[in-house]
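HUMAN: Quick job: go over this next protein and say how the chain folds.
***
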Amino acid sequence: MKNLHLYFATSTYGLEVETLLKETKCFCIDSLNALTYFALPKCIIALDTAMKMVYEISWVDAWDPAIERLILFDFLFDEIQLCAVFDSGKVLYIDPMNNQITEIASLPSPLLGGAWSPDLQALVLASSEMLFLVSREFEIISEENINPTSQGKDQLLTVGWGSRESQFQGAGTLKKREAADLDRMPSPLLHNDDRRVIVSWRADAQFFTVSSIMQTNESSEEATMESRRLRVWNRELELMSHCDWLSGIENVLTMRPQGNLIATTRISGSDRWVWLYERNGQYRSKFCLGPAKDSIVRNILWNSDSSVLSILFDTTETSQLHFWTVSNYEWAQKLVIQAPAKIIHGMWDLENNHCFHFITETGHYRCIYMERMYDVNNLLAINVNGNKLRVTDLPMAPIPPPMSHFELELPTSIIALCQSPEFLAVLFSDQSLSIYEVVDRKYKHKKSIQLPDLHNYNTLYNLQWIDDERISALCKADNYKIVEISLKNGDIKIVFSSTKPLIWHKFVGNDLGYIIQLTDGDFLSLLVGQEEAKPLEISGSIIQLKSVNCHKCWFLNEQKLLIALTRNHQLLINGNVVHSSIGSVSVSEDFVIVTTLTNILHCLPVKELKSLQAKDFDRFEGRVVERGSTIVTNESNGTRVWLQMPRGNLETIHPRALLIDQLQAHLNQLEFSTVLKEMRRHRVDMNLLYDNNPQLLLENVKTFVDQINDADLLNLFILSLCDEDTTTKIFAPFYMNHSLDKSWNEDKVNRICSSLVEYILSLNWDRLKNLYTSVLSCLVKMKPSKISEALSDIKVRYSSANSEGDILLREWLRHLSYLVDDRLLFNKALKTYDLHVALLVAEACDRDPKEYLPLLRDLQKISPPSYQQYHIDLKVDPPDLTSALSHLAEVEERFDETIQFIKKHRLYSKALAVFQNKPRYKDICRLCAENLLTAKRYEEAVLLFRKCEDWESVLKCHELGRNYKGYIEIATANTHTSKEDIAKTLERMALSFETTNDFATVAEIYRHLNIDKYYPRIIENFCKALHWTEALNVATAKNDIDQLRTAVDAHFNALLSLISNRKSEIEKHIKRLEIVRENKMKQIQQWIESEGDLDIAQSETMSEASTTVSNLSRISKLSTVSSRRRKNIDRKKKLLKEGSPYEDAAILAALKEIYLAIMKQQDELRTFLPTMVSLDMIDDARILQKEVISLFEFASQSMKSAWPKHIQLRSLIGPIYEIYRGDDGIVRMPSEEVMPSKIPLDDELIPPSFSCDSYWQMEILK
């Protein structure tokens, strides 16, 4: 669907150098230095891009044109030298920098043609009989007969089935087999054949095709004739295939740079055709070039990316260049260039795919730059095919070529065209201009204008509409000009002239006039009525693009935005690069739509482009498109974007960004119906209708419902609701600047549903009955779901309906059955306790009558109503036990059944709430208390037994719960309990506490019973509990301190022994810890010195691998995350055994336990030392205090060794391979003694909190 447009042209027109080039034989291009070398009989001239002569090299002494013919003239870019090959076999090297000419070699002669390989490493030359493969040093590597008779390597062979003529090809093909295939027969040379041998390479330099002349026998006579035939060879000069004979073949040839196609031309009858072959020599396809009369094909060439095929025709007086492209397997003529004279030589630029160079016999040299672009305006797409314009109306149907909605027959070939929303202007090769008007979205011819002789303007390109009476164009004459063409009479007016090349212009209004782009990337502004152009300024900044040849430009006048796409895929906005890999662009009023080279389509809002930076580009949401697809156009103020796929077909998409923008516009105008229908069509989450502007919807619920007035559409919206704010989730990229009070989204679903229900229920009956299903959807959707309320409301509406009530009821219940599971709906119907509603629901849900009819009959027979409701609660799934209990409680005569129901389902707590303030409440309390007593929840049972005044049970609960204080309180208040029973019970409780070593409580119980009788036991138990102050008080009160003195003396001796033992344990552990750490450092040093060899026979790998390993690599990949292994390590850390891998961790753990025990001992000393002083054991108390202080000092000093202030390598715990194990489980030993990269903070590495407090120390003992 793309057309070829000229966007730039340079030429020697009007320059002195044009006279010098009249005798040019051929030329070549130096793309590296942007030079063109022309081979003249006497000299070589080099021109730069400004058409100025750079070099002039004389070769009069090296070449005599009268004797030798130049057959090859190439630029060798790797050596920056020219190479000329003559038919005599002479080869010349020309150094343009030093003006030196050297004869390199002399090859066999005469030579008829040849070509360098694209990599310049091989040269193929041809004589009339031989084909030579020549190296870069011009040595003949190999040679072959140019017309071999052997079979090619890729030639198709017939194996086992005979020839094609002997094979069955279907009924009615006998005559076809007998008739000769005239297309595939040799034919004599055409009268204009110059007998050259033509060589054409593929771009990868692996294959080349040769067109040569050979002697053949005619089919009916023995006489011979000369015919052309094509053959394919590989780089080693091995024959690959013979192409089928082609009758009427012409002496032109090109091999497609990419792929396996070979193209040549032939004359068949009165028409000329392009014939395409595969590399294996088989015919592939063909297309017609038109009548062959009065024209000769001089050349046929593919450009370097194989997208355009150029064909050079010679007519009687001049030459024409035709450019063809292919899409959807159809070839179309896109552009015709009329040369001012006959073209001597033409070629494609090797670097610029769409640049073609040619020179005429008059010395006119021209470079034309083309680009494949879409011609679309007002969504009418134009496709050029020779003298036809195919027009596709994209909104009607995206029809790709060769199809179209209608065609325009044109008088001749097209040079250029331009569109406006109402008109189309077409410039023809005969210098005429036709204007077409859009009528009913079809182009109708309005008028034709014959322009004056355009020879003075050389080439017109970049046509642009100004208004209905004028168009403008760029042209290359003596200078580059902007001209205005009047559509009334065809007059041409020069608006602007520049010596600098112009590639793009556009008239944007009277304020800025013309915007002009130069090839160097600068932009100019030419105001109306002025001759001098000034640098373009937008928002106070001069626009200078950082890239040249940005011929794809758009200007948005209202926003003052200049958008450009460079040839190297940079997207520039007002001169700033915003992305560097853009494949295609489409610009509309509100959006700029682009596709990247990674096949992502982005929609950029125009209002945000002024501040857009490259780093912010990705914040615009993109969507993946098919690889290689390009944007044709997009719908202004719409959502459609048309893409053309690599295969040529057109597809229409609706990008989310465009769709959301349109939905926002419709919502702002309260067009809810349009929005909802578009959301349904494009499967957009309908929550956006609310989330876009919650206040807008809630304040316009009436408008919302009235516009839609369709229950199905409303239900679709209601059932899609969720509490999530979609503008912060799936639509967040389109709401980056969206600010909303979060309170609007709190309880979102219920808020919307309540508003809808309220309004719909207020409608009159005629509208309500049509929208009532939306009310049911709202009730079901609310949280929690109000299914029961929906059923109840249905019952009310049904009872008040007229004759159509049954129909409506079935419709409403059927709608509920779509939303709610049939079992749940039937259960909810039963929970209304209206068996008629349940019957109707069961019928609507198509339930089996054998299931629900017997159930409903049985329920109908039960009375009273509360008892019936109790049974209904049990029949629902799952049974509603709480409701069943509340209903059963209403039936007084069924209390025994109630008790059994509570016990069966263990509804004790529910029963307390249900029976509160009822006559049988105390009975329920006793029932629940007995259950708690059985469950040994004595304190809770006491509370309920007290409510029913069962004091014996209360005492029992206190005794079983060992609450002696509560027992004493109740027993004392209860006159029915004797003192003897109280004493016996307390004695039993004391024995119970004694078995659990709760000596303090035992002493308190004996104190309550009789302090005089039990004071020895009281003192004994207080001493056992280490409550020395209480023991001293009792002994003092009874004036009997002997028992206490004995206990204190015994405990004093025990403490001294304990202090001594702890000192020994600390000293022992510290010494062993030092040895373990020293051994670990030795092992690390040994491991480093031996590069990893270390005996780890006692490591954990023994138990896991059951083998002895002594190399780090064998254990370097153990898992570090295995929970089983972690537990194994924790167990080893508690094993205080010499030689264990975690011995240091076990020692630190043991030391920490000792330190914690010492710290705990201080609390006891606070009461024990005063007791000793009270018993006149001052010397012993002083000794004890001194020993404890000594223990603290020793422990504190030792602690510095166990837990140093700074962690060192020797202080780390565990085996060394665990110390250096990384997160990935691999052990990486360092080359020297350094800390590991990560240190796990195990509990053993953290020192205990240890200090000697002064609160327990007595001053009198110091």
Observations:
- The radius of gyration is 52 Å.
- The CA atoms of residues 81 and 96 lie 7 Å apart.
- The chain has 33 helices and 57 strands.
- The mean pLDDT is 84.
